[in-house]
From TrEMBL:
InterPro entries: Mitotic_Regulator, Sel1-like, TPR-like_helical_dom_sf, Znf_MYND, Znf_RING/FYVE/PHD. The keyword Magnesium does not apply. Coiled coil: none annotated. It comes from the Eukaryota. It comes from Thalassiosira oceanica. Residues 50-94 form the MYND-type domain. This is MYND-type domain-containing protein.
């Protein structure tokens, strides 16, 4: 309860804010769901027989081939008719097991950086705050870190550091739209940003920006998944639906998006699922997300997080910061600061 109250105070969100969007506190799994050896736990079904009619795999002269329930992977069926007939009795256990399997994926995946988190030139991972530490290149749809951009300028080259396209020959909007229409998720995300922020001389249109972000999200583009979740959580260009927002944030978190995992931590904490919230925060700290580290520090001051947990999060966060640092990036940051103060 203290953890939940602390998160509400820090975020400024009350229970009603999220309940109106469809989020409700969920009960923890029962002991029988957590432990198969619990007193009232049902015995495990025979996976070599149909869960409804009992026919064994390979029966009737080898003609019977059982298929696993794709949701829970606990039982098998010999036909669609048997699956439908058994659905009523199996539905509850199936949903519980499917939720457990999704949680296993949610907390076992997304704690490491993926290929798109690295600069394609120096192969050093990007900082989480991409906007201030990298440059998006319209010509090749690559994100180049500020260090590599500075290295190109020091060579007196104004061409794209990655694809060597000369300035003024990019054809930004036409190139991006063409690639987006052919199914390139990076181009879809770029076009969505164009409609959302009014880039490339486009008129701001949140419905079109959502459409392109959702197309990219459905192809596994994690930043688009985060943006789609944000749109659903705020009702921005689409009707508000927190359940759908959580789905997209979970998909993004499993792909390694710390922003999405931080949002899930806030929601779990507010709903009273403190263990889940802390696990999310620890993972996003490991990926170098400053807001999660600041949250854990504050929760430690409030007594909601132990000293050991705070220390572990800080070590992981500092390691993540070291991984994204390079001499060229440091110089580029210092030059930007001098220009901003002059």
């Amino acid at each position: 309860k203290g953890f939940s109250r602390a998160l509400k105070a820090l975020t400024g969100f009350g229970d009603g804010t999220w309940r109106n969007g469809g989020l409700k506190a969920q009960k923890s799994p029962t002991m029988s769901a957590q432990c198969p050896k619990a007193k009232d736990a049902p015995t495990a079904p025979d996976v070599d027989t149909c869960a409804h009619c009992g026919i064994k795999s390979g029966g009737e002269g080898g003609k019977v081939k059982l298929k696993m329930c794709t949701a829970c992977r606990l039982v098998k069926y010999c036909s669609v008719d048997c699956q439908k007939a058994h659905r009523k009795g199996h539905k509850k256990a199936c949903k519980e097991r499917a939720a457990e399997l999704r949680d296993e994926r949610l907390f076992n995946q997304g704690s490491e950086r993926t290929e798109e988190d690295f600069c394609p030139i120096c192969f050093i991972p990007y900082p989480v705050q991409l906007d201030s530490e990298s440059v998006f290149r319209d010509c090749c749809l690559k994100v180049v870190c500020t260090g590599c951009s500075l290295a190109a300028l020091e060579r007196k080259s104004m061409d794209c550091p990655f694809c060597r396209t000369p300035p003024g020959e990019e054809g930004s909007l036409e190139r991006i739209r063409g690639r987006a229409e052919k199914g390139d998720p990076e181009a879809m995300a770029a076009l969505a940003s164009g409609y959302f922020y009014g880039r490339y001389d486009l008129t701001v249109d949140k419905h079109l920006s959502f459409k392109w972000w959702k197309d990219a999200a459905d192809l596994g583009h994690k930043l688009s998944q985060f943006n789609v979740g944000r749109a659903y959580s705020q009702g921005d260009g689409v009707p508000m639906d927190m359940k759908v927002a959580i789905h997209y944030w979970e998909e993004a978190a499993m792909s390694g998006c710390p922003r999405s995992r931080h949002q899930l931590a806030m929601l779990d904490g507010i709903a009273g699922r403190t263990d889940r919230a802390l696990r999310h925060l620890l993972i996003s700290c490991k990926l170098g997300f400053k807001e999660s580290m600041d949250m854990i520090r504050q929760l430690h001051k409030d007594g909601s997080v132990t000293r050991e947990q705070c220390k572990s999060a800080l070590v992981d966060y500092l390691n993540a910061q070291d991984e994204v640092s390079s001499p060229l990036r440091i110089r580029a940051t210092m030059m930007d600061r001098k220009r901003s103060t002059s």
